Amino acid sequence: VDDYPYLCFHSLFVVLWAVTFLCSWDRECAAKAWAWNVYGEQRKAEIRPEFEGELRTSRVHGLKERFYPHHKRHLGYAVSVVVTSVMLCVAFVAMTCSLNLEGYLEEHATSF
Predict the structure, then answer these.
(1) Which tens digits make up the pLDDT trace of 3-49?
(2) Rounded to the nearest 5 degrees, what angle is found at the Cα of 71, between the Cα atoms of 66 and 73?
């Protein structure tokens, strides 16, 4: 790759293609939005029903929002860390047993 004499031209072509593609994609999206009569509309943030938390008034913008307390979130993180650590230990023990068994079998193997 380092000896390829046209690498800089290839890189320039890829960059120009990416910029051109993104600009054409933005134009296509704008054309579709105009055709579907949704140009300029913003998605309205809905209060997600599947999100667990308490409904409260935001101190920033005064709208209703769901809030999940920090202590519950950190408890979930702690449980996740413990479960992941246990699974990593199980995988490490299984790998160690497998390698020891392989060494044991090779040591006691007979040649045919």
Answers:
(1) 888 888 999 999 999 999 999 999 999 899 889 888 776 655 566 67
(2) 60
Report how far apart the first and last C-alpha atoms of the chain are (Å, whole number): 48
DSSP 8-state secondary structure symbol assigned to residue 38: -
C-alpha to C-alpha distance for 7 and 91, rounded to whole angstroms: 44
Question: What are residue 75's phi and psi, to 5 degrees?
Answer: -65, -40
pTM of the model as a whole:
0.46
CB contact at 8 A, 53 and 67? yes
Q: How far apart are CA 15 and CA 11, in angstroms?
A: 6
Q: How many CA atoms lie within 13 A of 110 on its CB side?
A: 1
Residue whose token pair is 């040591």: 107
The torsion defined by the Cα of 58, 59, 60 and 66, in degrees rounded to 10, comes to -20
Q: Are 54 and 67 in contact (CB under 8 A)?
A: yes
